[in-house]
Amino acid sequence: MNSCTATYRLYDDKADFRKKAESISVGMTVGSWTELPQAKRESMQKHLGQVLQVDVHEPEGVQPGERYADVTIAYPNVNFSKDIPALLVTVFGKISMDGRIKLNRLGFSDDYLSAFPGPKFGISGIRDLLGVYDRPLLMSIFKSVIGLNMDELKDQFTKQALGGVDLIKDDEILFENEFTPIEKRVEVCLKAAEAASRETGKKLLYAANLTGHTSSLKSQAVKAIQAGANALLFNVLSYGYDVLHELSSDPEITVPIAAHPALAGAYYPSQHYGISASVLLGQLMRLAGADLVLFPSPYGSVTMPREENMAIRDELISSALPIKTSMPVPSAGIHPGLVPLILRDFGQDVVVNAGGGIHGHPMGTEAGGHAFVQAIEAAQQSIRLADYAEADHPELKAALEAWGGER
After folding, report:
1. Quick check: keyword Ribonucleoprotein in the entry (predicted)?
2. What is the pLDDT of residues 296-351, one digit of tens each?
3. pTM of the model
């Protein structure tokens, strides 16, 4: 296939969707067609978009505003360079502003994919780093970090690490500051991780938030890695997919990158506009090289419909792409009582990610981590959480009393 494809959902009560699709295929490629002389048409043929499919949905009794069509158009590779910004401008640039239209799926040619090595570690590589192969992973999040000095940050990190988590990530709003610059907090936190590991017996990845001017991101990343960083957190949508692509494929960036979904809500939630969550947080994050991808879960405080979560999951782990898989990280409002639901929907290859569900535990942050560990143990053995809690697991019991869940 010498083209990449885009599938859209177009809403219109009266339009001839076939004509609309043809208009898009021409307007987003050669710009005009019928006005061109025959000789020019022949020379431009290789650039012309092609309508592959138009499926109209207009059942009897369809209500105003509900008539739509799913349209797939092929865009010749010759039209754009092998980078994500060029592809997005080609398939959704100006038409994103032309009525009710949503980009729901992308298809990539082998030639286009040749420019993308994908995640450097992926699910298998992250498991290798941690030495954990038989269960979901557990992540905790720094909270209320703005204004903390290094000692306060170290104290919070230590409590999380002693709770038995596998990963700890910065809050995405922790930017470079005079109190906890990235190389200093990496050094301090990893020393704390080593001390905690002697008690827990677990390895730990710490994802430090990579921030600053775009031109300085690589030097910031290298500085953190030289200080001992073993993972990075990155706000992909604020910087752009191409920045993630360059970082993830750079041989000097030798640690996994976790992609944060900040700003995603500006793109995917509308039924009629924007880019679907499965493209935004699934296909493109993995293609750009994210090893772990965070996104709102269907269970907690910032919710996403379950079918959209499953669509993201499918894109992150699909064998259709010839690159490594990315680890799904459903997030926001997660507490121990939700663990069985997470494992039901995502299986073993998932990161259970919690902030308030750990720090807000009635017995403290360390106990919050233990409660999640116990919930994972119970869910893997198909034991009811309440029964497991009563069997000498007071941390889980306190969590269930505080937040509820499977009883």
Report:
1. no
2. 998 877 778 999 999 999 999 999 999 999 999 999 889 999 999 999 999 999 99
3. 0.94
Nearest to 264 by CA among 309, 223, 228: 309
> Region 375-392: what's the mean pLDDT?
96
Question: Reduced to 3 states, what is the DSSP secondary structure of residue 208?
Answer: strand
CA neighbours within 13 Å on the CB side: how many for 337?
16
| E-strand stretches of 205-361 | 205-209, 231-235, 257-260, 274-275, 292-296, 327-331, 351-354
Mean confidence (pLDDT) of the chain = 93
Examine domains 3-113 and 122-403 and report if their fold is the same. no
| Token reading at 257 | 């990158």
Residue at 62: amino acid letter: V
Query: pLDDT at residue 378 above 90?
Result: yes
| Domain layout of the chain by residue ranges | 3-113, 122-403
Instruction: For residues 234 and 47, give the distance between their C-alpha atoms in angstroms, rounded to a whole number.
Output: 36
DSSP string over 291-307: SEEEEE-SSSSS---HH
**Share of the chain residues as helix, strand and coil, in percent rounded to the nearest 5:** 45, 15, 40
Q: What is the DSSP letter of 322?
A: S
CATH 3.30.70.150: does it fit domain 3-113? yes
CATH code reported for the domain at 122-403: 3.20.20.110
Q: 57: Cβ–Cβ under 8 A, 6 or more apart, which residues?
A: 67, 68, 69, 70
pLDDT at 180: 87
Q: Given a cut of 90, is residue 61 above it in pLDDT?
A: no
pLDDT at 407: 40
Q: What is the DSSP letter of 63?
A: P
Catalytic residues: 94
User: For a pLDDT cut of 70, what percent of the chain falls above it?
Assistant: 96
Q: Which of these, 358, 352, 347, lies nearest to 403 by C-alpha position?
A: 358
